[in-house]
Automatic annotation (TrEMBL):
It holds the Pfam family Glyoxalase. This is VOC family protein. Residues 4-126 form the VOC domain. PROSITE patterns: VOC. It comes from the Bacteria. It comes from Pseudomonas cavernae.
Length: 138
């Protein structure tokens, strides 16, 4: 197997609200897709939003669940100022700020927001990894 993540699918309770946050608020480029799902192109992968109940049915698991899901999504950018800008953009678009941007123990700078379904996004500047112009696009 050649390891890679080609798509991340987030289960959402209100598809329209989630599409509004990701497409209009965060300016993710939306692909053509059927009305019951939304696809966005990322740099080398895709993000999809799919109704929670439908995704659970597809995976043949219960749709019940709350609290911390056990993972976060991370968006690495090239500066601390860009971290602040993206967190502000997310909050303006309807996301909830969970942790204000700050210096962190591993030597970087990061903060967290959550989308309408509680999916946690870390926005981080890691001075130990180079993030090029194409990599820093939202």
């Amino acid at each position: 197997m050649k390891p890679r993540i080609s798509m991340i699918t987030l289960a959402v309770s209100d598809l329209a609200a989630s599409v509004k946050l990701y497409q209009q608020g965060l300016e993710f480029p939306r692909m053509d897709s059927p009305p019951e799902i939304a696809f966005f192109t990322l740099n080398g992968s895709w993000l999809s939003l799919y109704p929670r109940q439908s995704l659970a049915e597809d995976a043949t698991v219960s749709s019940a669940g709350s609290g911390f899901e056990g993972f976060t999504l991370s968006h690495n950018v090239s500066s601390e100022a860009e971290v602040d800008q993206i967190l502000a953009q997310a909050v303006t678009a309807g996301a909830i700020l969970v942790k204000s941007a700050q210096k962190v123990f591993w030597g970087g700078y990061s903060g967290y927001f959550k989308d309408p379904d509680g999916h946690l996004w870390e926005v981080a500047h890691n001075p130990h990894f180079w993030v090029g112009p194409a990599d820093s696009a939202t």
